[in-house]
Structures are given as C-alpha cells and as structure tokens.
Amino acid sequence: MNRKIAPDIQPINHIKTGFPEINSRLCRIDSDEEVFKLEIIFPKAGYGNYSNKFHALYGMDLLLSGHEEKSASEISESLDQLGSFVFKGCDYYTSTITLYGLQEHLKSTLEIVVDSMRKCAYVKDELDVYKERKVSELNINLNKTNFQANRAINDLIFGETHPYALKSDESLIRNVDTDSLKTFRTNALVEPYFIFTGQSNIDIENSLMQHGFELKGQLAHTSGDILPKNEVADKFVSVQGSTQNSIRFGKVLPSRKDPDYFTISLFNLVLGGYFGSRLMKNIREEKGLTYGIHSSITPFKTFSIFKISSECNKTLTAEVKKEIEKEILQLQTDLISEDELTVARNYMLGSLLRNFDGAFNISERLKAALELETESDYYASYFKAINAITAEEIRRCANNYFNIKTLNYSVAGEI
User: Fold this and answer.
1) DSSP string of 133-155?
2) Is the pLDDT of residue 224 over 80?
3) Among 305, 302, 275, 315, which Cα is nearest to 401's?
4) What is the DSSP letter of 108?
5) Counting beta carbons within 10 angstroms of the beta carbon of residue 395, is it exposed (0 to 12), middle (13 to 18) or buried (19 or more)?
6) Residue 355: in which H helix or E strand, if any?
7) Rounded CA gap, 199 and 206, in Å?
C-alpha cells in the first residue's frame, strides 16, 4: 500500500434503511446487542395540540414524579437498581417514553414505567418545586442573547400565538396545575405505537399485551399542521450588559414532499450546513467575525423552516449581516464549482449513512419517518436526487427561495 496516494473515492448510490415492514402498532428492529430500546410513542400528545403547550411538556416531564404508593425518588431508585434508563420527550407532533436497559430486565423495567405512568398523581408539592425551577431557569434565560434571538425569529416566522413559537412566561408556567396535567395524561396518552430495538428472541409482543396495550391495527396519525404566519420583518431585542449579539435569519420553505426539497437541502449545506460551508469559511475562518455560524432546515409535515444562526461581538453585527447576505447573493449569481458541489454532495450522503449506522440509529430515523408521515421511497429518492443536482439547479434554488427581501431577521443584545 502506497500511503502517499489517496484511495479512490467510491460514489454513494443507495442506502438500505433497515426499516421493518409495518403491519401493526409494533415495529421491531433486530439487534445483536444485549441491551434493548423500547419507544412508546403517543401520536395525540404533541404540544402542537395545546393552546398552552406546557401542559404537554410538563405532563411528560413529570410522568414518573410519583403516586400514592411510590415517590419519584423510589421510582428512580428502582430503575437504577436494574441499570435501566428512561427518557421522556415531548415534541410538536408526539410524546415519547423511551426505555433502555439489559434485555434480562425488560419486563421489570416495563412494569415499573407503565405502573408509574398510569398511576401518576402529579403531586402538588412535586409540581410546585418543578414550577419554581422552571421560573428560575426562565429568568436566567431571559438574560441570554441566544435565547432571546430564537424567541424573536420564531415570533416572526410562526406568529406569537402559534404553538411552536408560544413563549414561556411566569404566568403560563404557574397556570399549569395538577388537574390540567391529569387531563393531558388521560386524553393524550392513548393509542400508542411502539418501536422495539433488541434481540429477535425477546417476546416483546407478549410483554406489551400483558400491560393492556393494543398491538393490532394501523398506527394512529399525528395531528396536522398550523401554518406559520411568516410576515417578513425585522425584530430587535435589547439585552442590557451583553458583550455579544445573537443574529438570526429565518423563513418558511416547502415540505419534504416538494420536488425542490432536496435541492434546497443541498443549497443549505453549501451555504452554512457544515464546517466546510461558505458562511463558516468566510465569516469565521477568513474574517474571524464569529466563533460559529450555521444554517439549518427543520422539516414539518407540510412545510419546513430555514434558519441562519450566529453570535458575534456587538460591534460587528452589521458586518456579519452584510457578509451573510453577500454569500447568499453570490450563490444567486455565480455557479458553484464542481469540486465544491462534489464535496457537499458526498458529505450530505455520508452523513445520512451515519444516521443509519446501528440499530438504535435506525430506530431514530424510523420514528422521525413515521412522525412526519414520510413516503416509503423517500430515502431512495434522496440518493437519486442529491447525486443528480447540478450547479445550475443550486443557483436556481437560491434565486427562487432565498431572496434576501423574504428573510426574517432578528438580533438580540446591545442594540
């Protein structure tokens, strides 16, 4: 082997997702590991269904906070003794309880979690302590420029009353009470579906049915979308005493189902989606105006959200904004080189492959695909589309979707 000669680059043309065939409410992903992962997903429990999203967020976070027979610390100790870990999450569409542990302790772990979930009393003393902590965290965050800039750009994109942009304040936090959390548990934590990752000889079906879970039938769909308001404007939030400013750009873009979505995704990568992007090279590496800058796309069912985020010295805000706009304008006028396009394309496809490396990663991708109701051929189309995108299409995309005048802009800091 001659180590002075780089190996040939092999093109990536396809992917095997490892997704199972779905014919019930239980999806199984086989793994050779001695640990298991069980995701219990509630399709009606996303915070997007609530005028006060904190009923859902706090209802999930406090789900193992105790009941008449066991306190929160006793539940936690019981799980620790088994070497098990439980994650509770609530996002826009769904809420999820994820169990991790040794396969020999699956039944015991499941029994503790299901029992604690169904008997959860949302004890007032526990809830009061939790709310005080959340109010304290809020007061600390209100003095952070990145927190304020994110709130501001979400206001502009979604509108202040949209569930995704609904801002936490002390009155909303204190308005959460035991009754509202119990109502959430009763009405929302129903009709779950399951993703189990573990060895094929584990009888997870029987374990779930013993706890009264229904496995037959189709997966229940998550709620629809409330469309963003997206009134193009600028918003400035003063954070006194800050030495840095946080800058955000953002706008609404088409969903994953749009024919241009793959081109939009590749454009985002070239602009600011990875360490070799144009924003990073120009604004961080060459000019040293910021420690970090990036752009991203967040997919929803019927739309997606584009954002650019950066922090900089408060005296450099105008210059950073100017350089960001310059990079977008350059992509609208000049064709990117074939070398740059090839590097971005390979990075994008390689990153996707890493997302499917291992059974636990596959389960994460499957959960996202089910949540967004992704078409079964999405990832096959992904590879085909990314490999076919040309420099001309990148420029067309830049002009069609990223006109500077259509971008919302927010700054938080010393204004």
Assistant:
1) HHHHHHHHHTT-HHHHHHHHHHH
2) no
3) 305
4) H
5) middle
6) helix 338-355
7) 15
Question: Nearest CA to 341 among 405, 393, 408, 380?
Answer: 393
Q: Is the pLDDT of residue 51 over 90?
A: no
- The pair of three-digit structure tokens given for residue 211, joined into one six-digit string: 């706890």
Which of 14, 8, 18 minimizes the C-alpha distance to 385? 14
Flag whether pLDDT at 402 surpasses 90: yes
pLDDT tens for each residue of 167-216:
888 999 999 999 999 999 999 999 999 999 999 999 999 999 999 999 98
Query: By percentage, how much of the chain surpasses pLDDT 70?
Result: 100
Cα separation, 67 vs 75, whole angstroms: 10
Compute the distance between CA of residue 305 and CA of residue 299 in angstroms, rounded to an integer. Answer: 6
Q: Which helix (H) or strand (E) holds 209?
A: helix 204-210
Distance CA 188, CA 80 (A): 28
Q: Is 281 left (phi over 0), alpha (psi -120 to 50) or beta?
A: alpha
Check if the beta carbon of residue 40 is closer than 8 Å to that of residue 194: yes
Q: How far apart are CA 76 and CA 366, in angstroms?
A: 29
Closest CA to 250 of 390, 402, 407: 407
SS3 at position 69? coil
355-399 pLDDT, tens digit each:
999 999 999 999 999 998 888 889 888 989 999 999 999 999 999
Start-to-end CA distance of the chain, whole Å, equals 59
> Beta-carbon neighbour count of residue 393 at 10 Å?
17
- The letter for the amino acid at 187 is N
What are 306's strand-pairing partners? 251, 297
**Partners of 66 in beta bridges:** 71
Q: What is the DSSP string of 237-305?
A: EE-TT-SEEEEEEEEEE--TTSTTHHHHHHHHIIIIISTTSHHIIIIIIIT---S-EEEEEEE-SS-EE
Place 163 in a pLDDT band, splitting at 50, 70 and 90.
confident
Q: Which residues pair with residue 295 across a beta bridge?
A: 308
CA distances from 224 to 128, 137, 302 (A): 33, 31, 8
Per-residue exposure over 324-338, b if at least 16 CB sit within 10 Å of its own CB, e if not: beebbeebbeeebee
Q: Do the strands 234-238 and 95-102 form a parallel or antiparallel pair, or are they unpaired?
A: unpaired
pTM: 0.91
